[in-house]
Amino acid sequence: MKLKWVEMREVHMRLLHPFETSFGREEEKVFLLLAVSNGETVGWGECAAMDAPLYNEETTAGAALVIRDHIVPRLWGDLEGPEDVYERLQPIRGNALAKAAVEEAVWDLFARCEGQSLAVALGAEREKVPVGVSLGIEEKLGDLLAAVEERLAEGYARIKVKIKPGWDVRIVEAIRERFGDIPLQVDANSCYTLSDLPMLRALDRFGLLLIEQPLAHDDIIDHARLQRELRTPICLDESIRSAEDARKAIEIGAMRVLNVKVGRLGGLAESRRAVEVCRDAGVGAWCGGMLESGVGRSINLAIQSLPGFTLPSDTSATSRYWEEDLTEPPVVVEPGGLVQVPNGAGLGVEIIPERLERRTFARERWLRP
Ligand code: SMG
Ligand code: MG
């Protein structure tokens, strides 16, 4: 297949509730949506980069530049399948979030052309997947406890809380006291060092499902040292950018669980390979989130339908993020914390043109030369 055009939009969407992590506070998402077409059918992808380089080094503006100047020019030749895109973009160092947005769109296009769901195109095994919810840092402990209560009532299969120095042992202890033995995990987004070992040991007493990315965003060595000190599994997010990274981290004992983010791993093909590495090594995996619109979240649902995903994901209901999403139908959480994996062609959701237009701030389209 040959692409006829590629279109990139900058989209702005205000979150229903601000989301605070150890690195910052998100109130509005400014992100890129990618569309690719063979002239008849259109495929969609979403870039996970945020406005500021605080999660990783990529930004929305930087990703736009890399997509325009370096990624799009490599897409015009014949594509035998969506797997070709990862190989074609391999010479470009880094820039995983930018590459993944385009690769996802090509996967969607191929799946739609074949009348297959993206999940089936990837090798889906499950029609429903368990999901949890990620709760940001609050000003008051009472507000966090109220959020936990509300989300448990909505049926989520596990709770994840963001932690930072001063908002760690205290909140985990309070949640355990109030809600008992619920499935609970924490995410530090790289805000500790090995000098925080006493606090991390204190966390080890609470029977957490996992501790996500406690140490530096680019480290695996200290994580391996830390894992030797803890019973709780360490889960890596920021540090793992490829299936090879996953293999190395497992080999040195730096993680027992992987947070799979399609963006951070540079696309769907590489995410699938990373999950295979984990599965072969008996290491757990689950799908993370980047506060995506319905486009990104249907992609997340598709990848987590594959074998090898062992824990609930961060793909929460539409109502947790947006008053009005770009897509229909919304993601809804069923009893047991289950979500239906879309089974229509491609992403299996419909993009509502008026909603997208209203939130599009800039748009560029390139035609095959
Ligand atoms: O999509 O519900 C979601 C967000 C899940 O906590 C989440 N993501 O490090 O895992 C993570 C964070 C990264 C984004 S924070 C703005
Ligand atoms: Mg994380």
Tell me what you see in this structure.
With about 375 residues, the protein is an alpha/beta fold. It folds into 2 domains: about 5-115 and about 350-365, 2-Layer Sandwich (Enolase-like, domain 1), CATH 3.30.390.10; about 120-340, Enolase-like C-terminal domain (TIM Barrel). It is about 35% helix and about 20% strand. The protein has 12 helices and 15 strands. It has helices spanning about 60-70, 85-90, 95-115, 120, 140-155, 170-180, 195-205, 220-230, 245-250, 270-280, 295-305, 355-360; strands at about 5-20, 25-35, 40-45, 130, 135, 160, 185, 210, 235, 255-260, 285, 325-330, 340, 350, 360-365. The protein has a 7-stranded parallel sheet. A 4-stranded antiparallel sheet has the order 3-2-1-15, sandwiched between helices. It has a two-stranded antiparallel ribbon with strand order 4-13. Helix 1 crosses helix 3 (about 95-115) and helix 9 (about 245-250) runs parallel beside helix 10. It is globular, with a radius of gyration of 20 Å. N-succinyl methionine binds near residues 134 and 316. Magnesium ion (MG) binds near residues 187, 189 and 212.
The major sheet is characterized as: 7 strands, parallel
> Which term fits the overall shape?
globular
Q: Would you tell me the structural class of the helices and strands?
A: alpha/beta
Helix share of residues? 25-40%
In terms of DSSP E residues, the strand content is 15-25%
Instruction: Give the overall pLDDT as a whole number.
Output: 98
CATH class of the largest domain equals Alpha Beta
Q: How many separate structural domains?
A: 2
In spatial order, strands of the major sheet run 5-6-7-8-9-10-11
Small molecules (ligands, ions, cofactors) in the structure: N-succinyl methionine, magnesium ion
CATH topology of the largest domain: TIM Barrel
Residue stretches low in confidence (pLDDT < 50, at least 5 long) are none
Specify Rg, calculated over alpha carbons: 20 Å
Question: What string, H for helix and E for strand, traces the elements in order?
Answer: EEEHHHHEEHEHEHEHEHEHEHEEEHE
Number of helices: 12
**What distance lies between the first and last C-alpha atoms, to the nearest angstrom?**
15 Å
CATH superfamily of the largest domain: Enolase-like C-terminal domain
CATH architecture of the largest domain: Alpha-Beta Barrel
- Beta-strand segment tally: 15
